[in-house]
Amino acid sequence: MTLRRAGIRPHPCEPWTSLVPSVASQLLPGGNDASLPVLRRRLGVLESWKPAREWMPSEKVGLLRRVADGQGKAVAQSLGQILSGVAPVVLTGQQPGVAGGPLFVWLKAHAAVAHAERMSVRLGLPVRALFWVAGDDSDLAEVRRLLDPVTGRVLDSHPGIDDGIRPVGDIPFTDPRGMRSWAASVWPDSAFLPLLDGGSNDLSSLMVACLRHWFGDRLVVVDARWSEVRSLARRTYRTFARSPEGVHRALSAGMAAASAAGLKVAVRSWPDRLRLFRIGDDGGRRRVVSLGGVLTDGADWTVPVKSVPSILEREIERFSHDVVSRPFAAEEIFPVLAHVLGPGEFAYFACLGEVSRSIGASLAPALPRASCTILPAGPWPEALRAGWNPPARASGPWDPLKNAYVESMHPESVQWSRTWADARADYLEQIGSDASVEAFGKKMASFESRLRLSRLKALSGRHEQELSVLGRLWAIMGAGGVQERVVSPWSLEQHLGQPGLLRRLAEHVDPDEPVHTVWEAR
């Protein structure tokens, strides 16, 4: 198999990566530059990282043991280097989606691995790639379903469960056999099937298995739902519990600055809500709120504010960060040399500059994830007939694309529609203009539109095979969406007939390239 560069499009992170350094350094706490001088300065900042740790030696042991059990000794050794400060990391992450999520998750992890390996050479020291699985996120609806666009079939990891409060990584699969049956029928030739047979029983463990399959020992994976991870972040949790109003003011200022720079703002802020959640006795994850000298999770937990430091010390595993405190918690635990972000994360990182300065916690530079689309081998005559050049633009919705193809094959139909429209306009002009005539004209136009669609539907029956080819290309491209955001890597490998697609893609995708690259798989 070969990949041929077929075209380029704007990178989805371009609004943030194109910021001039003076603006980027004010909005993004670590800027968006990873040049060698910047990395060396960042290493200087990390010199103070190791002495500042408050951990007991035993506190790291649990995390190392968990990683060794799940990912092997080599990865545990890499994590040991990281936790001791010997090896800084390039950090990225994502919520645990079904089957590892869409292609952009693979692109994030690949970018982190590639950057880490390049930085190791440039800096002359070990740099590791680390993936932060946000298994403590409680939005199950966001991650439980996966569409295979070619077959149109949807995999639901938790049928019968209506849950929006527990960490998604803590909820076991309800029908593992059903998941395997779905995968076997939709991706019969896929290496995903052995992963399901390997004992993964929740979204987090399956995410780790997918990342291990794709990247092996080149990537260290941790899960934010692990109590060991939360325990090592307690200093950051104390910082964000100390002054919710101060954090709110700083974040609001950062949001205003990002908005003034013309950037999308993707976070919200409240003066009485902490950037922390608490895990209750029922396993539910609820935001901590400050109310007149007490903190509460709105359920069965209320404590005086003055007792929070001791509670955080005793029950740190009960607490969880949110989207704002998460990068600071991650840098509390790991010596981060750079973050790899997607456009959604850039949208909130660009609001954190004032927070970073107000709490005295710098963040590492932010780099964009890789971005691409993969096409089946061309040429694509049906697409070009429909006025769609796949390398140049995304596919758009299906019905207009299908109708454009049919109309290109039947120009007489276009003329037929124009004749109807002209006749209607002439008739209305002859009978004058008032409210009743205008209403009648709208009814005629609606009838004309329905008649046109009915004719197109009848004509499309003559082109069933060509439209099937066009529909398959449209589905692989993302079924009207952006491929990397909706299509699983497993789907691409299966439906392109390329079991080695990701291995080859890793050889071609350059995370330093500031564009979205369109590849043709041959």
Describe this structure in words.
This protein has 522 residues and is an alpha/beta fold. The chain has a domain at 374-514. It has helices spanning 14-17, 21-27, 36-46, 57-71, 73-83, 103-123, 140-143, 176-186, 192-197, 203-215, 227-232, 234-242, 244-260, 308-314, 326-333, 343-349, 353-359, 381-385, 398-409, 411-430, 435-460, 464-476, 483-486, 489-495, 501-508; strands spanning 3-10, 89-94, 128-133, 145-148, 153-156, 219-223, 273-279, 285-291, 294-296, 302-304, 319-321, 336-341, 366-368, 372-376, 515-521. The strands form four sheets. Strands 6-3-2-12-13 form a five-stranded parallel sheet, with helices on both faces. A hairpin with a 5-residue loop joins strand 7 (273-279) and strand 8 (285-291). Helix 12 packs antiparallel against helix 14, helix 19 (398-409) crosses helix 21 (435-460) and helix 20 runs antiparallel to helix 21. It is globular, with a radius of gyration of 27 Å.
- Rounded mean pLDDT is 91
Indicate the structural class: alpha/beta
Strand percentage = 5-15%
Work out the helicity level: 40-55%
Please give the count of helices.
Answer: 25
**Sheet with the most strands, sense and barrel status:** 5 strands, parallel
How would you concisely characterize the structure shown here?
The protein is an alpha/beta fold and 522 residues long. It has helices at 14-17, 21-27, 36-46, 57-71, 73-83, 103-123, 140-143, 176-186, 192-197, 203-215, 227-232, 234-242, 244-260, 308-314, 326-333, 343-349, 353-359, 381-385, 398-409, 411-430, 435-460, 464-476, 483-486, 489-495, 501-508, and strands at residues 3-10, 89-94, 128-133, 145-148, 153-156, 219-223, 273-279, 285-291, 294-296, 302-304, 319-321, 336-341, 366-368, 372-376, 515-521.
